[in-house]
Design brief:
single chain, about 325 residues, alpha/beta, Rossmann fold, Alpha-Beta Plaits, 5-stranded mixed β-sheet, 10 strands, about 45% helix, binds 3'-deoxy-guanosine-5'-triphosphate, binds magnesium ion, Diguanylate_Cyclase, phosphoprotein, diguanylate cyclase activity, GGDEF_dom, CheY-like_superfamily
Length: about 325
């Protein structure tokens, strides 16, 4: 997997939380030359900045004017968006009970005041390195090893999250299911390694076809791919799907044993939240799957939109 890019090494982002400006200044001076430092003087401000800025580490005092440090740590841990941010308590309370409580709440370290800059720096560097390694592993768990696209797990998570947004904001969301045509014959003709390579090329073409930053294309499994298109209605999604179909056809990868085309082709099924009675991943998937099945039976190498059965219509 030598082609898997590591995330760029931006300057690490630190959030320093302390009611006393003098303490903040001391930590700022310790880190500002090679870190991005955000500063908060209250618990609520700390939580807001953690959401907005997604720091890589929080240096957190226990004594704050509103929520205490324990409470801030608890709330950071409770939110999936901030759970992975390591919290280091920096505090004058150097009693055993406070330290034990902080660590039990999920803090990674406890540093006593007054701070000794070289020691704080060294410990923070260690926690930042662990955080970065954790980020890379978490990212890998959501990537498909063959194509480098996001995997089924990422698809499930994103679809569930985007459906919640769609319901809340009353915006449409579309799903595109994609299946390579006559791929078994391709493998039989060229061998599995060539088949793998073809899947990589298809994946790259699909990825290049995602033009909006919120659009996601994933390897759903085998020779199936799925796109989540937030904020996209059915006509919009049909247009995206047609663009993807054309992009894969334009690769002109020879497929002499397919009756569909002399080159590798895909079939696509599209369903939109506006078409399903309940906003569940299952309902949307069933719609897109049904459409894909129709695209296959109608001759493959085509896009088919979901056509929900009308109420009262003959079966
Ligand atoms: P259809 O047009 O109806 O979709 O026909 P098909 O041959 O594509 O469908 P079928 O489901 O019969 O076969 C899918 C094939 O995809 C069989 C399987 O070996 C192949 N396949 C699935 N995953 C991979 C993979 O990761 N690498 C390779 N090389 N082949 C794969
Ligand atoms: Mg297939």
């Amino acid at each position: 997997m030598s082609s898997m890019p590591l995330p760029p090494l931006d300057r690490p982002r630190l959030l320093v939380v302390d009611e006393q400006p003098a303490n903040i200044q001391a930590l700022y001076r310790t880190f500002a030359s090679d870190h991005q430092v955000f500063m908060a003087t209250s618990g609520r401000q700390a939580l807001e900045l953690a959401q907005e800025r997604r720091p890589d580490l929080v240096l957190l005092d226990l004594d704050l004017p509103d929520l205490d440090g324990f409470e801030v740590c608890t709330r950071l841990q409770a939110d999936p968006a901030t759970r992975h941010i390591p919290v280091v308590f920096v505090t004058a309370h150097n009693d055993e009970a406070a330290e034990a409580r902080g660590l039990a709440l999920g803090a990674v370290d406890f540093i006593g005041k007054p701070i000794r800059p070289a020691i704080v720096r060294a410990r923070v560097q260690t926690h930042l390195l662990l955080k970065r390694q954790g980020d890379v592993l978490r990212d890998l768990a959501f990537l498909d090893g063959l194509t480098g696209l996001h995997n089924r797990r990422a698809f499930d998570e994103r679809l569930a999250a985007e459906l919640r947004h769609a319901a809340r904001d009353r915006t449409p969301l579309s799903l595109v299911m994609i299946d390579v045509d006559r791929f078994k014959r391709y493998n039989d003709h060229y061998g599995h390694l060539a088949g793998d390579d073809a899947l990589r090329q298809v994946a790259a073409a699909l990825r290049a076809g995602m033009l909006r930053p919120m659009d996601l294309v994933t390897r759903f499994g085998g020779e199936e791919f799925a796109c989540v298109l937030p904020g996209t209605d059915l006509p919009g999604a049909l247009a995206v799907a047609e663009r993807l179909r054309a992009a894969v056809a334009a690769l002109r990868m020879p497929h002499p044993t397919s009756e569909v085309q002399p080159h590798l082709s895909i079939s696509l099924g599209v369903a939109c939240t506006t078409q399903v009675p309940v906003l569940t991943p299952q309902a949307l998937l069933a719609g897109a799957d049904a459409a894909l099945y129709q695209a296959k039976s109608a001759g493959r190498d085509r896009v088919q939109g979901f056509e929900p059965a009308r109420e009262g219509a003959a079966p």
